[in-house]
Amino acid sequence: MVHTIANQDAATVNKYRGPDAYTFSDALALTNFGKFNYFLIFISGMVMAVVLLETSSMGFILPIAQCDLHLTNVDKGVLSAISFLGIISSSHLWGFLADTKGRRKVMRPTLLATFTVTILSSFAPNFWAMVMLRFLNGFFLASTATIYAYLGEFHTDKTRSRAIMGSAFIFAIGAMILPMIAFLVINQDWVLHLTFIGIDYKPWRLFVIVCGIPGFLCGLSLFFLPESPKFLLAVGDEKKAIEVLKKMHRWNGGGKRLPNITNILPDEDDVVISTLKFSNNFDSNSNFAIVFLQTMWNQTVPLFQRRYLLITIIICNIQFWLFVITNGLYMWFPHIINSMAAFMQEHPGEHRQICEIVYAQEKNLYKNDGSIECINKLENSTYYYSFIMEILYASSFAFIGLIINHVGKKLILFISMIFFTSCGLVSIFIADPTIAAYLYVLFFLVGVAINVLGAATVDLYPTHLRAMAGCISLMIGRLGSVVGANIAGALMGQYCEWNFYIACGAMYVCGFLVLLLPRKSPEAAAKSEA
């Protein structure tokens, strides 16, 4: 059987507060902010970067691999999206397990499994093998959505937003490495003829493995980090929660001796979850799969009940369209920039709009006999503009991290979404390819809103729903990646402009939806009004 998830109001529990009892926030504040937090922020940022490296690397691979894997534009759209489809298929599962079994316990094995599948996919002999392996890659990669809840629960309200934005800065630094790795690895001239599996092992295949190494290292690093103390407290393991706090205090240099903590009480806006695990003995008449799915359903339903319904709908809608742009359309960024760079090299001084260049270069891909002209290297300008984008990403995250506690998440979300979307819309009307390329780069900086929205999500849900809320919102976001990548593939050859019209129009609507989000969770708002 499955134990019932029993909830108690924190105020009720706090009535029994003793002399050595502290609320969780007070106890967490006593650990100070130091080496432990910096290490955790670094690892969390790298986990976020793993998702980008594993998924966005495909954008650099597809123009080069089209002859080896015999790819059409539609095939490229499928390969661009398939990892996200894998992420969608398992996000609900990992969110449920993270909320019931533990954040670290879920991420650690799945990151190692992701790297294993990545190695296998570098040897994929054809399109369908690559599709299957990249789907499995996404299936395991989905667990990383838990990182927002995991990181946030090691920090107080005062430091949480800055910690998440600090990890976002690390994410941006990790992302900055992507075009550098691509330049160093892909643009080489060696080939290994692996006749026993029927492939030519080229630099783009090695690039697949190199992009997976950070995930492997993050999986190993999680062996040195503890489980979230707030999660341990939520499932009633107070003793382990206290041990984690003591470990944090030791890592942070100690300083003043940590007071004797005998009890940790939940914060006013939390609930105590007395049990959240399966018993080892099932009733003979019960079916494990049915019980498992029913428990997962019970963990999900609160997100769509009256108290959280509007919040969940708004966050999921915003994530969907943010991911349409930053993951779906971004998969075609190297293709478009490479086309623009080739055009500027072949027609110096000639002015054309982005989509006109894309149409012209699409025709040039085909030889007179109808076969495809194989591309073995990307133009250097492709790496240059990609690197510029990542530098701007890192700078934006650093700046937001400094101002987020003073300005507020809603205003940052609104301004960033409206401004960067406008850059993208204007870029398709500019006839100067250089100016258009820079505006096109700025368009993708709307992705900074994803991490700010992740920080807001942590604030808007209680402990026992955070991981599930994060996973579901990112699952919907990844659905946007699938939609964006496939629609872009279908429209790119003849209706390139409509990619921008649809995405930008929806993003303007989302910018105003942000203003409807509350500043606090419903529980915290109710307590402050009482």
Automatic annotation (TrEMBL):
The chain crosses the membrane at residues 38-65, 77-98, 110-129, 135-151, 163-186, 206-225, 308-333, 383-404, 411-431, 437-458, 470-492, 498-517. InterPro entries: MFS (IPR011701), MFS_dom (IPR020846), MFS_trans_sf (IPR036259). It comes from the Eukaryota. The gene is SV2B. PANTHER family: MAJOR FACILITATOR SUPERFAMILY (MFS) PROFILE DOMAIN-CONTAINING PROTEIN-RELATED, SYNAPTIC VESICLE GLYCOPROTEIN 2. Residues 40-523 form the Major facilitator superfamily (MFS) profile domain. GO terms for molecular function: transmembrane transporter activity. This is Synaptic vesicle glycoprotein 2B. Gene3D superfamilies: MFS general substrate transporter like domains. SUPFAM superfamilies: MFS general substrate transporter. The keyword Transport applies. Keywords: Membrane, Transmembrane, Transmembrane helix, Transport. It is found in: Membrane. It is a multi-pass membrane protein. GO terms for cellular component: membrane. Its main location: membrane.
